[in-house]
């Protein structure tokens, strides 16, 4: 991957120009010194040639040699000649040796001459090189010094001018670095000072088009999921999503619940006589009533199962609670006044059946349909529950739940179990998700899916999340650095200001090395619903060094624009999408859509609830980053307890 340069363009140009100027000055100085030395040697050679010619002429005169001792020493001293010897084959004729103090005899300039007018005579001269005894003089070097100062001042001015000219390119470079760092939104529009202006404007346009493309991709992904899993008239789940969720929940262990079918009788006649608009208005009114009534229960699925038939799945609620809910549901529907030809007192009928783990989905829907037909036989607005042997009995009310949960929390909180989350290679461990369990009065272990609705009902969410977080931080401090945990946090707790302050203080008191091994999981539906309030909390969690995980993605159909809005590390798909995905093309389409939404972000998609190799192979082909489920490892306790009885 190509990396961005670590040196700014201005600094590189300044360094280049400075180096060029310094090299030019150095070359001029070296060339000048060499030329200066050569000129001095040429001057000395010419001067000595003149002295030799004078001596040669004097030797030609018969009386000239006798006069050497009178005038020649003065000439030689003035010429910086240290030694001179006139000789012939007969021997030395004249010799001169000056009194100059020499620190280094090797610096003497030695020359040898043969006289032209006096053949056979030679002169050997040792003289001082020119400028040997000169010292630096400000006056003599002032012009050079001034020239150097002018060059330096020009260089500084030129560098400042160059920096000003390239300031726009530096702004553009800084903006590019910020975009590479992921801060696209803040630097989407550049400054007017950026240069080149065409590159800046082109970058602005490309970012704007990219943002539009991302939003369009998010809208398109939402459109795909909506048309695949939602009813376009009421906005509720369609039959595909309802069957998938029901199939998933009956295959889980220790689950139970009920299915409620609501049918509008004679809806076809209303459609034929009053038209599609009147028939659709009635469907919308019924769907609105049902949507409002199911808000009290978590993990509930409302579906428009057929044209005039709705289905509701309510998990983890007792038979007594379901019957009370059905009675309230019928009373709410009876407040509607349907248009003719529907009869006011005989237009809606409800069938109820109960299910538990291991039952077949088709059998459950057949039971609900038979109960609905029995209600229709009454010839009045009514409901009927299918008679079957109950395979579960959980009539614990809110008072008993409050008593049990209060005792558990006072005793130290829930028991923590763990389940591994592995990479796509099936071996590398990404983290371990911590799962809460509690014991009832008889010591029987209760899963979170059983007691979490009660925790929310009695208002113990904050209390439970504090205990789980405190336990997790304590465990991370004592366990090896290779252990990485992920814990679930309810949106109710995160929306409480006192809890957020407590969480911030706890994280600030924890070493960074510990926080880097901790992830917080938040349900997708709740996050999107309260996205504005969750943005600063998500930034705080990520800023302190923890990872952010979005859980239960796909349980509800929401826009995936939040992936670009907050920094998400992992997105965990809801287990209903994973169950038998190798046989469900619509679920594969949903997973592809989610992977496409994460393509331009750092978020990694993890499949939750992988049960067999067929599911895992399809998920790997789709491109998920990791998996979690019994295929990779069962849920095991962090503290060995052989006396725990599974319920």
Query: The CATH topology of the largest domain, please?
Result: TIM Barrel
CATH architectural grouping of the largest domain: Alpha-Beta Barrel
Name the CATH homologous superfamily of the largest domain. EAL domain
Number of helices: 22
**Mean pLDDT, nearest integer?**
85
Radius of gyration: 48 Å
Oligomer: single chain
Structural class of the secondary elements? alpha/beta
Number of domains: 3
Q: In the CATH hierarchy, what is the class of the largest domain?
A: Alpha Beta
How much strand content do the residues show?
Answer: 15-25%
Q: State the distance separating the first and last CA atoms.
A: 53 Å
SS elements, strand count: 20
List the topology elements.
Blueprint: H1 9-60, H2 68-78, E1 81-88, E2 91-97, E3 109-114, E4 122-127, H3 138-165, H4 167-180, H5 197-229, H6 239-251, E5 256-264, H7 267-274, H8 276-293, E6 301-306, E7 309-315, H9 319-334, E8 348-356, H10 361-376, E9 382-385, H11 398-410, E10 415-423, E11 429-439, E12 444-447, H12 448-458, H13 461-478, E13 485-488, H14 491-494, H15 497-508, H16 512-515, E14 518-523, H17 524-529, H18 531-543, E15 547-553, H19 562-565, E16 570-573, H20 575-578, H21 585-597, E17 604-608, H22 613-622, E18 626-628, E19 636-637, E20 645-646
Parallel strand pairs: 8-9, 11-13, 12-20, 13-14, 14-15, 15-16, 16-17, 17-18
Antiparallel strand pairs: 1-2, 1-4, 3-4, 5-7, 5-8, 6-7, 10-11, 10-18, 10-19, 11-12
Helix pairs in contact: 1-3, 5-21, 7-8, 8-9, 11-12
């Amino acid at each position: 991957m190509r990396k961005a340069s670590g040196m700014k363009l201005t600094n590189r140009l300044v360094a280049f120009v400075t180096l060029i100027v310094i090299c030019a000055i150095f070359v001029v100085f070296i060339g000048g010194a060499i030329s200066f030395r050569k000129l001095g040697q040429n001057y000395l050679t010419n001067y000595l040639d003149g002295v030799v010619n004078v001596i040669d002429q004097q030797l030609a005169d018969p009386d000239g040699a006798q006069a050497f001792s009178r005038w020649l020493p003065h000439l030689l001293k003035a010429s910086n000649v240290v030694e001179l010897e006139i000789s012939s084959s007969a021997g030395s004729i004249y010799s001169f040796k000056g009194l100059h103090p020499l620190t280094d005899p090797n610096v003497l300039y030695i020359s040898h001459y043969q006289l032209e007018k006096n053949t056979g005579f030679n002169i050997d001269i040792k003289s001082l090189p020119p400028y040997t005894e000169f010292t630096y003089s400000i006056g003599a070097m002032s012009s050079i010094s001034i020239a150097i100062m002018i060059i330096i001042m020009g260089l500084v001015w030129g560098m400042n001018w160059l920096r000003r000219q390239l300031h726009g390119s530096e702004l553009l470079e800084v903006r590019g670095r910020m975009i590479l760092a992921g801060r696209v939104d803040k630097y989407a529009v550049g400054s007017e000072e950026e240069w080149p202006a065409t590159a800046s404007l082109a970058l602005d346009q490309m970012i704007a088009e990219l943002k539009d493309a991302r939003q369009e991709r998010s809208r398109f992904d939402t459109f795909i999921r909506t048309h695949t899993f939602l009813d376009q008239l009421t906005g509720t789940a369609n039959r595909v999503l309802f069957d998938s969720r029901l199939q998933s929940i009956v295959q889980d262990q220790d689950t139970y619940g009920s299915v409620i079918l609501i049918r509008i009788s004679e809806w076809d006649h209303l459609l034929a006589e009053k038209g599609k608009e009147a028939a659709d208005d009635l469907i919308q009114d019924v769907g609105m009533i049902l949507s409002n009534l199911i808000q009290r229960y978590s993990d509930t699925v409302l579906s428009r199962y057929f044209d005039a038939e709705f289905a509701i799945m309510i998990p983890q609620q007792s038979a007594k609670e379901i019957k009370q809910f059905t009675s309230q549901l019928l009373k709410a529907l009876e407040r509607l006044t349907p248009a003719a030809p529907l009869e006011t007192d005989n237009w809606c009928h409800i069938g109820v059946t109960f299910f538990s783990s291991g039952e077949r989905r088709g059998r459950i829907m057949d039971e609900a349909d038979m109960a609905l037909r029995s209600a229709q036989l009454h010839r009045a607005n009514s409901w009927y529950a299918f008679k079957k042997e109950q395979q579960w009995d959980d009539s614990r009310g809110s008072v008993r739940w409050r008593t049990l949960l209060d005792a558990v929390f006072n005793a130290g909180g829930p028991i923590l179990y763990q389940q591994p989350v592995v990479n796509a290679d099936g071996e590398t461990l990404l983290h371990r998700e911590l799962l809460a369990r509690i014991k009832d009065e008889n010591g029987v272990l209760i899963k979170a899916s059983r007691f979490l609705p009660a925790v929310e009902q009695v208002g113990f969410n904050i209390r439970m999340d504090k205990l789980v977080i405190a336990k997790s931080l304590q465990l991370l401090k004592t366990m090896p650095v290779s252990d990485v945990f992920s814990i679930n946090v309810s949106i109710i707790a995160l929306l409480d200001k006192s809890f957020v302050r407590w969480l911030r203080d706890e994280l600030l008191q924890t070493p960074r090395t510990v926080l880097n091994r901790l992830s917080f999981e938040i349900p997708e539906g709740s996050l999107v619903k309260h996205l504005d309030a969750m943005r600063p909390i998500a930034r705080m969690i990520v800023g302190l060094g923890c990872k952010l995980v979005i859980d239960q993605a796909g349980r509800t159909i929401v826009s995936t624009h939040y992936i670009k809005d907050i920094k998400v590390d992992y997105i965990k798909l809801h287990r209903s999408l994973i169950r038998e995905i190798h046989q469900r093309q619509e679920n594969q389409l949903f997973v592809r859509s989610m992977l496409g939404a994460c393509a331009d972000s750092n978020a990694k998609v993890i499949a939750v609830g992988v049960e067999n190799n067929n599911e895992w192979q399809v998920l790997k082909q789709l491109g998920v980053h990791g998996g979690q489920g019994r295929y990779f490892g069962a849920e095991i306790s962090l503290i060995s307890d052989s006396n725990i009885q599974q319920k």
